[in-house]
Amino acid sequence: MNNNQASTQQKLLIVGNGMAAGRMVDELIARDPHRFSITVIGDEPHGSYNRIMLSPVLSGESTALSIIQKPAAWYAENGMRFLAGVKVVRINRAQKTVDCDNGEQVEYDHLIMATGSRPARIPAKNQDLTGVMAFRTLDDVDTILALGETAKHAIVIGGGLLGLEAAYGMAVRGIDVTLVHRSGWLLNRQLDSASGALLEQVMAHKGVRFRLSREVVSFNGNRRVESATLTGGETLPCDIAVIATGITPNAELGFEAGLEGKRGIEVNDYLATSDPAISAIGECSEHNGETFGLVEPIWQHCTSLADRLALNVRTAYKNMPVATKLKVSGVQVFSAGDWLTTDQHREVVYQDVARNIYRKLLLKNNRIVGIVFFGDVRDGQYFFELMEHGVVVTQALPQLLMGRAFCSEVPQAAASKEVAAA
């Protein structure tokens, strides 16, 4: 790049260095590697890493080094400035600058908020005790591993994917783990009660105990957590308590600067905020009242915003149905659309108890509106495409669950909007 190019570059500042920010810089470079002078500020001491892979690091199946996608040197090698372990404390919109906790002030022509999220709080007492913590970062994993050297008992609060992964990771390390979940079954936002019960059986065989339909009301101990009291009065011993009950957008920095939003920083179809010089992506953002916790829509955020900033092309983000593909301690789960059966649905279920396989399709007006697969997720994407296209399923519904070999091809079905099982 010559001096003339450098002088005409726009100053692009990305606040946050999680998976959304990492993908964002990739998308920008792919479109125009010289258009922006990019600065990335992240409050963690690491480069961008794959947060989805924290569980294998906790269980010992992977290493911290292996999940770092962009080490600190990568940014300089690609012409960017990277401030690691630095927190932005104020946005000065009129001056187009941000103030950092290290005293530095950074200018921008355009600012991208990618500040992510934090674990949601629970209404339990004494959460400030040592050992009560989250499971969101590499530093959290390091803390759990350090405590785990002497810990005998742990509890995990939350039966979603993150909670299950944390419980499995500690159980593999030989810690006695109990998972507390306020719902009556696990993964209750992706699975129905039948498939949730299958997952509970599998996890129990892997060494995790459960207290379902319970909540923690208080943590107990002298400086360090020693036990947790549940609704109903039961007290469980614990040296580690991991809270994994969902996420809250890190939107306060934007709100304090006057950006609009309710739970997250509000963006339009092109990821622009109420300030045209500021965009927001990922878990800190809110679009049409929806916030985000899955990877796929966040990748779409990055694509749309990169098109607008680097190419001046307006590619609208659309909040489309997303298939949830999970791997919980070796168990495959695929869920999309509706997952709970109501009197408005026609339900088709296949279950192989011996092999822990469960497949359920939900239909309305002969169209698939919900998919729940557990244990064997082959053809999950096929059924998702049928659902996306609104294909009419005309006959032989039991055979439909046997998979793609019994059905017409998706392209043909999509064209005719009709599919018949063989």
TrEMBL record:
| Residues covered by the FAD/NAD(P)-binding domain | 11-286
Q: What class of enzyme is it?
A: oxidoreductase
Q: List the molecular function annotations (GO) for this entry.
A: nitrite reductase (NADH) activity
Query: This protein's superkingdom?
Result: Bacteria
**Which keywords has UniProt assigned to this entry?**
FAD, Flavoprotein, Oxidoreductase
Family statement drawn from the similarity comment of this UniProt entry: Belongs to the FAD-dependent oxidoreductase family.
Identification of the protein by name: Nitrite reductase (NADH) large subunit
